[in-house]
Design brief:
The chain has a two-stranded antiparallel ribbon with strand order 1-2. It has three helices and two strands. The chain has helices spanning about 5-10, 15-35, 40-65; strands at about 65-70, 75-80. Helix 1 packs parallel to helix 3 (about 40-65) and helix 2 (about 15-35) runs antiparallel to helix 3. The chain is mainly α and about 90 residues long. The model is unreliable at about 5-10 (pLDDT under 50).
Length: about 90
């Protein structure tokens, strides 16, 4: 494995959700290209899985923080926890 590809596999945690998404896009492009050797592809795959987990944790945390303001029948504004729509499986 080339030195550059080794660094790819040992990349530290991203600084932000957006940075993680950008890196995931880079990884997808590299894997779709098909020119990376097997070892590099596996390293990209592992890094991608770690980034997906990071992004999911960030999204879960954000969902727990979001509050929804609604107006009750009596006109009073009520704060409720955000409840995401269920996934279609």
């Amino acid at each position: 494995m080339a030195e550059n590809e080794k660094k790819t596999a040992k990349k530290k945690e991203p600084k932000s959700f957006e940075e993680a998404l950008n890196r995931l896009n880079e990884i997808v492009s590299a894997l779709e290209d098909g020119s990376a050797p097997l070892d590099a592809s596996l390293a990209y795959y592992e890094e991608g899985i770690a980034l997906i987990r990071y992004c999911n944790e960030k999204l879960d945390h954000a969902e727990r923080q979001i509050k929804v303001l609604t107006r009750a029948q009596d006109g009073e504004i009520v704060e409720k926890d955000f409840a995401p729509l269920p996934e279609n499986n």
